[in-house]
Design goal:
The mean pLDDT is 94. The two termini are 24 Å apart. Strand 4 and strand 5 form a beta hairpin. It contains 13 helices and 18 strands. With 397 residues, the chain is an alpha/beta fold.
């Protein structure tokens, strides 16, 4: 079967690998002209790693992953350690160690594993049509390609989502919601004055966060969350100035991190938006996955993992159901929409708690961190993983 995938991100390439290994003829198109992933790194929790293991990439992913043995929270202003605990229970309870990974490294691995000759960059889809037998993708340069089915993994501003939900015609497009904060992120060299090399370290105060987690190559992935209105002006020339303004009075470890950032080498600024869960992911021979289907805030670290779960469920459905392409895609939709939507809402709730929108709620969270043994936090992390389809096959339809 010929399959076109729109989008060469984590979801698109992982789906492509799975579908190729099932014997399908798969080609990926992406509007980007070169591989420049958005965001410096990502959290691969156990569910996401298991999908990559299933794809045969376990050893390569483990080599890219940072050794994250502990988790700690510190008071952002004083630097006082509020709590510290082992993350080993996550691996013990789920059967797989999680890994933070540099996004560019993982993206390059997935693109190589899929096959670079079958990835076509600089190709923007502008129209999709489906006559019941063949799906046609039309590109901005006037070229077309046809397939037995088309998968839209084309991100938060997905044209495929508009087609699937009818918004390309008369329906109102599904709108994104601003989460209330801006995230700055990048990569720096590990520095023990910021945090131990094997630890996820998070400084919290004033509804803001500054954090580091280890990735391969003696590097920290860092991020800062700044609650602020959407649409504030920012230019590359501003560099770390907004961070110094927001965090310049924080603890020495945070100052050390700020001084280590090279804005020209690695500093991204992203306004955080999400999409209310919805349950229309397919239309005929077209389906969506990843951010196109469940754009989420990063507050529980499940965005990439959820896209990987989509790839697993899609491949399993196409491999096990034979009535029709349309039927297989509908069964994929039924497998995924409820769980993916629940993770979006959990991330939204977590973001509301941590970013000071209700000061009393955030103050209570800070207090709960003081001398915490980590049991409750690990329960939450594992709870996000336990419902994954990778743990129980495709689940009950």
């Amino acid at each position: 079967m010929k399959i076109v995938i729109v989008g060469a991100g984590i979801g698109g390439t992982s789906a492509g690998i799975a579908l190729k290994r099932l014997g399908h003829d798969v080609v990926i198109y992406d509007r980007m002209r070169e591989n420049k992933p958005v965001g410096a790194a990502l959290s691969l929790w156990s569910n996401g790693v298991k999908v990559l293991n299933w794809l045969g990439l376990g050893d390569e992913v483990a080599a890219l992953g940072g050794r994250m043995d502990h988790m700690a929270y510190l008071d952002g202003r004083s630097g006082e350690q509020l709590c510290r605990f082992s993350l080993e229970p996550v691996a013990e309870q789920t059967g797989q160690r999680p890994y933070p990974v540099a996004r560019a490294d993982l993206q390059a691995l997935l693109m190589r594993a899929f096959g670079l000759d079958d990835i076509h960059l600089g190709k923007q889809v502008v129209e999709i049509s489906d006559d019941g037998r063949v799906v046609t993708a039309t590109f901005a340069d006037g070229s077309v390609d046809t397939a037995d089915l088309l998968i839209g993994a084309d991100g938060a501003r997905s044209i495929t989502r508009d087609y699937v939900t009818g918004a390309d015609a008369a329906a109102t497009p599904i709108e994104r919601s601003y989460s209330g904060y801006t995230n700055f992120n990048g990569l720096v060299t590990v520095d023990p004055e910021v945090g131990p090399a094997d630890q996820w370290t998070t400084y919290v105060a004033e509804g803001k966060r500054a954090a580091v987690m280890p990735v391969e190559g003696d590097r920290f992935y860092f991020w800062f969350d700044v609650p602020q209105p959407a649409g504030l002006p920012y230019e590359r020339s501003y560099g770390t100035a907004p961070l110094v303004e927001a965090f310049g009075h924080w603890a020495p470890g945070v100052q050390k991190l700020l001084s280590a950032i090279d804005p020209d080498a690695s500093l991204n600024r992203v306004e955080i938006w999400d999409i209310d869960p919805f349950h229309t992911w397919t239309r005929g021979r077209v389906a969506i996955l990843g951010d196109a289907a469940h754009n989420t805030s990063p507050d529980i670290g499940q965005g990439a993992c959820s896209a990987l779960e989509d790839s697993f469920a899609l491949a399993i459905s196409l491999a096990t159901h034979t009535i029709s392409v349309e039927d297989s895609l509908k069964r994929y939709e039924r497998m995924r929409t409820e769980r993916a939507g629940e993770l979006v809402l959990r991330a939204r709730k977590r973001g509301d708690e941590t970013h000071g929108y209700d000061p009393a709620v955030t103050a209570a969270w800070y207090e709960s961190l003081r001398d915490a043994d980590g049991v409750g936090i690990i329960r939450g992390i594992v709870g996000n993983i336990e419902g994954s389809p990778i743990n129980l096959g495709v689940g009950v339809l």
